[in-house]
Amino acid sequence: MLLPSAYDPGVVAALSGVDAKQIRHVFFVACGGSLSIMHPAKFMLDQHLDMPSDVYNAAEFVARAPRRLDQQSLVILCSMTGTTKETASAAAYARTKGAVTIGLTLDAKSPMGQAVDHVVGFEAPYTTGVPIDAKDSNYARIYQLVLGFVALAGGEDLTQPLIDSLQALQPAIDRAHTTFAPQFESYAPGFAKKDVIYTVASGASYGAAYSFAICVLMEMQWINSHAIHANEFFHGPFEVLDKDSTFILLKGLDSTRPLEDRADEFLHRFGAVENILVLDAETLDLTGIDAQFRGNLVPLIFFDTLWRFAYKIAELRQHEMLEGRRYMKKLAY
Amino acid sequence: MLLPSAYDPGVVAALSGVDAKQIRHVFFVACGGSLSIMHPAKFMLDQHLDMPSDVYNAAEFVARAPRRLDQQSLVILCSMTGTTKETASAAAYARTKGAVTIGLTLDAKSPMGQAVDHVVGFEAPYTTGVPIDAKDSNYARIYQLVLGFVALAGGEDLTQPLIDSLQALQPAIDRAHTTFAPQFESYAPGFAKKDVIYTVASGASYGAAYSFAICVLMEMQWINSHAIHANEFFHGPFEVLDKDSTFILLKGLDSTRPLEDRADEFLHRFGAVENILVLDAETLDLTGIDAQFRGNLVPLIFFDTLWRFAYKIAELRQHEMLEGRRYMKKLAY
Question: Closest to A50 (Cβ–Cβ): which among B57, B68, B222?
Fold first, then answer.
C-alpha cells in the first residue's frame, strides 16, 4: 500500500521505507521541547491502532536499553536543529539494534539528520523568525507520520480528514490569538510578578503544558514551573493551592477533558480567579477541523497562542526570551 | 510452570491466575504516590523482558481507552487504602475489556480490592505507624510481580537473587539512615526556609523523586516542587538554576546513573553547595543486595530515608505532615 500523495512528501518518503506490517513497537524519542510533541503522538497512536509504543527522553532510552527494541521497532526521533547529542546518539543506538529510524529536523545535514534512516523536515519560526503555517510544523508532521503508519499497518485510513484539518489549523490559530488576547492582556501583569507558575493538562494537551513549563517559563523566563497532569493534581500537588498560587490550565477537546474540567473546578474553588488562567478550547472557532481531530490539534493552538502570553510576560519582566538564557547554547556542558 | 514458593503468597496466588504466555501487554495503573512505584516497575520489566508496557494515571487510562487493551492484557494497579476512586474505576474498566487485573492494596475489602481479579497485599507504616520490613512494601511486592511474570512468560528466572536482595533491604535501609543522617541534619535548616525544592533523578529512581516531590513536599509541606528527569534538566529546566535554587538529586545505581552524574556536575558548577542535596547510593553499604538489583532497590532506600529529612523540615517549619493537609481526605472533591 502506498500513502496518499496528500501527505507531506517527506512523510511519504520516510514511511515508504518502513515495512509497517512488520513493525511491532514504536519508540518516540527526543529531549525537552521536541520530547513534548511525542506525548500527543503516542496519545493519537494509542487511540487509533493496537500498537504498543513508548515515549522516552533520548538519554534515558539509550541507558535503559529496552529489550523490546529490535529490527521490528520503528523509532521516531525529533531534534529541531538536529544537533541534540542525546538524540543523535539514540538514533545511532537504535540502528545498531536493527530498528528503522525516522528523524524530524529542520536540518537533514545535522548529526541527527545523518544518523537516521529517513529524515522528515518541518518548519519552525524559531530559527528564521518568519511565521510559518502550522500545517508545516513538527506537530503536523508527526501526526501525519502516526496516521500514515496507522493506515499502512492496517488501521483506518484517516488521511483526508487529517489533511483537511491541518489545512484549517493556521486560520484557527489566527482566530484563537484574537479570542485569547483579552485574557492574556489581563493576566500578564499579575503573572509577570510570580515566582512559580504551574501548567496543568491531560491527554493530547499534556505535551503542550510540559513544553510551556520547561522550555518557556523555566528556560526563557527563569520562572519556577512544571507541568502537572490534571488528575495527578488531586493526588498531592493540589495541596499547594491557595489564593496566591498560580496556574495555567489547558482545557482541550480530547477524551480526557473531564479530568481538566475537574481540575478547573477545584482551582476556582480554592484559588484566586486572577491567578488561574484557563485556556478553554470550547471558546475557539475551529471551523474546518474535523471533530475527530479537534482534541489532537488544539494543543498546537494552545502552544502557539501561549507564546504571545510569554512575550508579554517577558516584556513586563524585562527578561528577554531566547537571548535571556544563561546556559543553553552559551557554554559547554 | 509454578512460581517458586520463595515469593510472597499473594504474588504467587495472583500470578497463578495469569496465563503469562498469553499476555502481550502490561499496563501499570495508579494515581499519585501509588503511580510512582509503577515507573520503576516498568523500568525493571523493560530491562528483563521483551514485553510492551505502559504507565498511566488511572483516570487518564480510562479516558484514553488505549486500543491495545484487551483480554491479552495484564493490568497491575495499586491503591494503598484501595479507596482511590479513579483506580477502582480503572480496574472495572480493564475487566470490561477482558484484561486480567491485579491490585496491590492494604485492604482486600476496599472498592479497588473488590474490583480486581486478584489482590496482592503489602504493608505500609503509613496507616499503622508501626515500622515495617521493606521486603513487605509495595515496591517489594510489585518487583516480585514483575520478575515472577518475567519468569512465567519465558524470561530468566531471577527469583532467588531477588528474594535474597529483598531480605537484605531493610538492614541496608537501617544503615542508610545512619549514612545520610549528617547530610539531613546539615541541609534541613536551609531547605526548611525554601519555597521551591526540585527533585532530580532518572531510570529506576525517577518514581521516588516524583513521589517525594508531589506527595511529601507539595502535599504535606506545601512547598512548590516537581520531579525533573535528570536529562530533561538540560533541555529547559536548568535555566532556573542559580545560587539560591534548591535541588535534591538522587544518584542511583541503575544504567542511567551517568545522566544523574551529569546533572550533579552541572548543579554544583552553578548552584550553591548548601542548596544541592545529593543522595548518592555509592556511599551506601548494600551488603546482601545482588549487584543486578542494586539499581532497582536503592530508590526504596532513597524514599525511606528521605521521610526522615521531611520530618526534620516539617518540625522546623512547624507544619505537620499528614495532619497538615488542607484538602486531601478533609473534604469532598
Answer: B68
Return the CATH fold of B9-164: Rossmann fold (3.40.50)
Nearest-by-Cβ selection for A237 from B48, B214, B258: B214
What sign does the CA torsion over A90, A91, A92, A95 have?
positive
Nearest neighbour of A68 by CB, restricted to B50, B238, B259: B50
Chain segment A39-88, per-residue pLDDT in tens: 999 999 999 999 999 999 999 999 999 999 999 999 999 999 999 999 99
Domain A168-317, what fold?
Rossmann fold (3.40.50)
Give yes or no on whether B9-164 and B183-317 have one common fold.
yes
The pLDDT value recorded for residue A317 is 96
* CB proximity A331 to B under 8 Å: no
Cα of A287 to nearest chain B Cα, Å: 25
Distance (Å) from the alpha carbon of A214 to chain B's nearest alpha carbon: 5
| pLDDT at residue A126, rounded to an integer | 61
Does the domain at B183-317 match CATH 3.40.50.300? Answer given as no
Which residues of A, range 222-241, sit inside 8 Å of B by Cβ?
Answer: 222-224, 226, 228-229, 231-232, 234-241
pLDDT in the model for residue B253: 98
> Given its phi and psi angles, is residue B329 left (phi above 0), alpha (psi -120 to 50 degrees) or beta?
left
Q: What are phi and psi of B330, to 5 degrees?
A: -110, -20
Q: Are the Cβ atoms of B67 and A60 closer than 8 angstroms?
A: no
Give residue-wise pLDDT tens across range B144-171.
999 999 999 999 999 999 999 999 999 9
- Distance, CA of B285 to CA of B171 (rounded, Å): 9
Question: Where are any strands of DSSP class E within A121-252?
Answer: 196-201, 224-229, 247-251
Helices A169-191 + A159-167 axis angle, to 10: 50
Amino acid at B223: I
Nearest to B103 by CA among B86, B85, B89, B115: B115
Nearest to B64 among A46, A236, A262 (CB): A46
Low-confidence ranges of chain B (pLDDT < 70): 1-2, 126-129
What ipTM describes this predicted complex?
Answer: 0.97
Tell me if chain A has a CB within 8 Å of the CB of B323: no
8-state DSSP, A213: I
The domains of chain A are located at 9-164, 168-317
Please say whether the beta carbons of B75 and B99 come within 8 A: yes
φ, ψ at B230 (rounded to 5°): -60, -30
Residue keyed to cell 525544592 = B197
- Grid cell for residue A84: 541534540
Residue B58 neighbours by CB under 8 Å, 6+ apart? A231, B29, B30, B31, B35, B77, B84, B86, B87, B89, B90
DSSP string, A114-153: HHSSEEE----HHHH-----GGGSHHHHHHHHHHHHHHHT
How many C-beta neighbours within 10 Å does residue A265 have?
Answer: 10
CA-closest candidate to residue B73, choices B19, B141, B121: B19
A39-52: pLDDT as tens digits: 999 999 999 999 99
